[in-house]
Design a protein that fits this description.
2 domains, globular, mainly alpha, single chain, 434 Repressor (Amino-terminal Domain)
Length: 157
């Protein structure tokens, strides 16, 4: 992964951690890694860790491991490659905005369930249509094609 990709991935990790209101030390301890290592990841100084470490971080942050795998550019099969081009940070932001909207409660009671990035994008699309509000553009809600024509950074691992 190039420096730009590491920076983007690090910012995504930092956003997830801050949304959970957990310190680097606590997140690292819960994920079984060192706090300095997590700090380096968040600063974009290190390449993304293994899938097993990402899975443990995903558990700490309350998201599906596949979301971190995709952000880390670990596409395993065609389905993951198709959805790799969704901007996970933007979809996560829009999903949280949707959940916080007091005027909208249909289908937002998750009770410990983790949704995939694709499921969140679909719910955001339904929300936008039913509430006549725009959180994401149609382009941001569409998965890219297998060549990645919807994405600025087209590097793969």
């Amino acid at each position: 992964m190039d420096e730009k990709g590491r920076q983007k991935f690090g910012a995504y990790l930092r956003t997830l951690r801050s949304e959970k209101k957990v310190t680097q030390k606590d997140a690292a301890t819960q994920a079984g890694i060192s706090a300095p290592y997590l700090a380096q990841l968040e600063k974009g100084q290190r390449n993304p860790p293994s899938r097993s470490v990402l899975s443990r971080l995903a558990k700490v942050y309350g998201i599906a491991p596949q979301e971190l795998w995709l952000e880390a550019e670990y596409a395993e099969n065609n389905t993951e490659r198709l959805f790799k081009r969704l901007d996970a940070a933007r979809v996560q932001w829009a999903f949280l905005a949707m959940l916080k909207d007091p005027a909208y409660s249909f289908g937002t009671r998750l009770r410990g369930k983790e949704l995939t990035l694709e499921a969140k994008a679909m719910l955001i699309e339904i929300y936008q249509k039913s509430m006549n509000r725009q959180l994401l553009t149609p382009e941001e809600l569409e998965p890219g094609d297998s060549e990645g024509n919807n994405h600025d950074n087209d590097s793969t691992s």
